[in-house]
């Protein structure tokens, strides 16, 4: 076998230009196919990451009725004892993040807008999504800012002379309502079981959220303040479970779902909470796969043309080798080894080039501007093109190109099997 490997390697470099052209074509195919998949997956991963961290969480415990009626009426009790119980359900649950949320009217002197009001613990949100790092103006309230049913505080209605509690507003909503830190915002809505919910809040800060839909409408309150506002003391509408590793999400969900059986609570993963987003990603990936197939066909024909030329040029050589006693299967083996060496070299060079390109774009993501950026933002995406470094993508795309090249090598092997020695020797 060593002799055949040496012969195949030397044959590869008898015509250096042709060999380098073939290797370059394979490397370019690997580079382009991985880059296409990386841009697609990077955009999808960023979208899912932002939606999971800022909106639904990777895992969410909620009342079974909340999906059909997402109102404070379907909040559930939450305290230290319940938190310890949830953390003990699975060792890979890193943290529990409580939230209470509802839709309300946000009003100022100029008018009203619909708003998503979220009561949060800013310190825990910081661990989940770096919320406080998104501040562009002002400051964030602390966990105990504003009152709660437990602390004896109250929401100011503007008649008591007490300073209003604080709220942090998303940049999009602040722009729509022309709000700035220090302005007063009124929230009007309905609390638990038909209770009136209204209060005045001083805008303490403005955050820029990466999820465009949320950036246009979100108001953050401290969890105690939101509970009191909605007459939902000691209640939350959801508990977000932060897994130690994202790959553990399904395993945690299965375990927690089993332990919640028989209660009024259920657990859902981000895929179950955002089915429309998942379908959109699948549809978008299907378009990417179609483009990849077109690329493989183009590269395949180019590579086949090179192999066809090589086979015709070496027809006389094959005839002479067979006439002096070399067996057809051994000659086919040598040709196969030649194609294998060229293919492997091309894939490896393609991997190296792609790694360098992707590492650059990881540090310097492509920023979209102008009308294209606005169109992307209208769909709720950030106007950037991030890339993915998923190892499985490198392996799958490299193997596809590799097997494509190996499959094309069957052509010269078939020609050798049917080659007429005398005609080939005289050609």
Q: How would you briefly describe this protein structure?
A:
With 427 residues, this protein is of the alpha+beta class.
What level of helicity do the residues show?
40-55%
DSSP helix count? 16
Total domains:
2
Mean pLDDT across the residues is 83
Radius of gyration, CA atoms, in whole angstroms = 31 Å
Tell the overall outline.
Answer: elongated
Name the strands of the widest sheet in spatial order. Answer: 3-4-9-6-8-7
Give the strand content: 15-25%
Low-confidence sequence ranges: 145-163
Number of E-state strands = 14
Could you give a short account of the major beta sheet? 6 strands, mixed, barrel
Order of helices and strands: HHEEHEEHEEHEEHEHEEHEHHHHEHEHHH
The termini sit apart by 30 Å
Derived from helix and strand composition plus strand pairing, the structural class reads alpha+beta
């Amino acid at each position: 076998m060593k002799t055949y490997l040496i012969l195949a390697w030397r044959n590869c470099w008898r015509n250096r230009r042709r060999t380098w052209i073939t290797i370059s074509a394979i490397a370019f195919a690997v580079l382009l196919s991985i880059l296409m998949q990386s841009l697609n997956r990077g955009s999808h991963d960023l979208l899912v990451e932002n939606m999971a961290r800022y909106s639904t969480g990777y895992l969410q415990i909620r009342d079974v009725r909340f999906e059909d009626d997402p109102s404070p009426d379907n909040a559930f009790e939450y305290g230290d004892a319940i938190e310890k119980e949830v953390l003990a359900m699975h060792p890979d649950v890193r943290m529990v993040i409580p939230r209470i949320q509802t839709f309300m009217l946000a009003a100022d002197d100029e008018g009203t807008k619909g708003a998503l009001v979220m009561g949060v613990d800013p310190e825990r949100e910081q661990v989940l999504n770096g919320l406080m790092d998104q501040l562009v103006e002002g400051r964030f309230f602390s966990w105990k800012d504003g009152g709660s049913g437990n602390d004896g505080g109250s929401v100011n209605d503007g008649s008591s002379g007490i300073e209003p509690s604080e709220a942090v507003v998303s940049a999009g909503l602040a722009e729509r309502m022309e709000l700035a830190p220090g302005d007063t915002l009124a929230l009007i809505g309905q609390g638990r079981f038909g209770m009136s919910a209204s209060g005045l809040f001083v805008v303490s800060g403005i955050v820029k959220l990466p999820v465009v839909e949320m950036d246009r409408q979100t108001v953050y309150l401290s969890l105690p303040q939101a509970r009191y506002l909605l007459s939902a003391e000691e209640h939350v509408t959801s508990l977000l479970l932060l897994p130690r590793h994202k790959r553990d999400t399904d395993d945690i969900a299965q375990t927690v779902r089993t332990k919640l059986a028989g209660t009024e609570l259920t657990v859902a993963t981000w895929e179950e909470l955002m089915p429309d987003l998942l379908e959109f990603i699948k549809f978008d990936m299907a378009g990417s796969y179609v483009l990849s197939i077109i690329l493989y066909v183009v590269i395949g024909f180019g590579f086949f043309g090179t192999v066809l030329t090589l086979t015709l040029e070496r027809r006389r050589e094959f005839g002479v080798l067979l006439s002096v006693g070399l067996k057809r299967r051994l000659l086919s083996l040598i040709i196969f080894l030649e194609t294998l060496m060229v293919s492997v070299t091309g894939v490896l060079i393609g991997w190296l080039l792609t790694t360098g390109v992707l590492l650059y774009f990881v540090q310097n993501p492509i920023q979209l501007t102008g009308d294209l950026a606005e169109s992307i933002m209208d769909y709720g995406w950030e106007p950037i093109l991030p890339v993915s470094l998923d190892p499985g993508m490198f392996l799958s795309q490299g193997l596809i190109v590799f097997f494509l090249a190996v499959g094309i090598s069957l052509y010269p092997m078939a020609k050798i099997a049917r080659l007429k020695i005398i005609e080939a020797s005289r050609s």
